[in-house]
């Protein structure tokens, strides 16, 4: 890892000096997912599994995804999904999606990237030295 380059990226996006020091320390200790200041930093080798785990924890939310997206994952018509959603069967749809989480995550990333999920502040994602960086506050 090029720590100098990573430090420069953290400075560029706005981390404070103390937060940068903390981030560099945590990276040097091989932490895969941590917060520094107003940012969440996740290693590229762990991010898909973390996203999968976080999305899996809320079947209601999964069932609220766009009908075209759910239909593509479950290989059913968007109209069927819309009927289920109209009848407030969000958890049922979410439970069905749990069985296809690899496809859900792949589709989510290809449509929205990681920033939409992890960067609650602005939806942006930054990449540097094998880490994704997201503003969370």
**Cα distance, first to last residue?**
27 Å
The unreliable regions are none
Total number of β-strand segments? Answer: 4
* Number of alpha- plus pi-helical segments: 9
Instruction: Specify the overall morphology.
Output: elongated
Instruction: Report the order of strands and helices.
Output: HHEEHHHHHHHEE
Q: In total, how many domains does the architecture comprise?
A: 2
**Physical arrangement of strands within the biggest beta sheet:** 1-2-4-3
**Proportion in β-strands:** 5-15%
Give me the oligomer status.
single chain
Major sheet description: 4 strands, antiparallel
Estimate the helix proportion, in percent: 55-70%
Structural class: alpha+beta
Overall description:
This protein is of the alpha+beta class and 137 residues long. It folds into two domains: 65 residues, no CATH class; 64 residues, no CATH class. The chain is built from nine helices and four strands; from the N terminus they run ααββαααααααββ. Strands 1-2-4-3 form a four-stranded antiparallel sheet, covered by helices on one side. A hairpin with a 2-residue loop joins β1 and β2. α3 crosses α8 and α5 crosses α6. The longest helix has 12 residues. It is elongated.
List the helices and strands and how they pair.
Blueprint: H1 3-13, H2 17-28, E1 33-36, E2 39-43, H3 47-56, H4 59-63, H5 67-74, H6 78-86, H7 90-98, H8 101-112, H9 115-118, E3 126-128, E4 131-135
Antiparallel strand pairs: 1-2, 2-4, 3-4
Helix pairs in contact: 3-8, 5-6
């Amino acid at each position: 890892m090029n720590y100098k380059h990573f430090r420069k990226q953290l400075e560029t996006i706005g981390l404070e000096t103390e937060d940068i020091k903390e981030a560099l320390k945590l990276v040097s200790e091989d932490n895969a997912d941590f917060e520094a200041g107003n940012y969440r930093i996740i290693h590229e080798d762990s991010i898909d599994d973390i996203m999968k785990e976080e999305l899996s924890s809320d079947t209601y939310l999964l069932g609220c995804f766009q009908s075209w997206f759910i239909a593509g994952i479950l290989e059913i018509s968007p109209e069927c999904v819309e009927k289920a959603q109209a009848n407030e069967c969000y958890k049922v749809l979410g439970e069905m999606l749990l069985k296809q989480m690899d496809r859900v995550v792949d589709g989510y990333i290809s449509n929205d990237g990681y920033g939409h999920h992890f960067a609650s502040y602005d939806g942006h994602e930054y990449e540097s030295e094998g880490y994704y960086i997201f503003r969370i506050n």
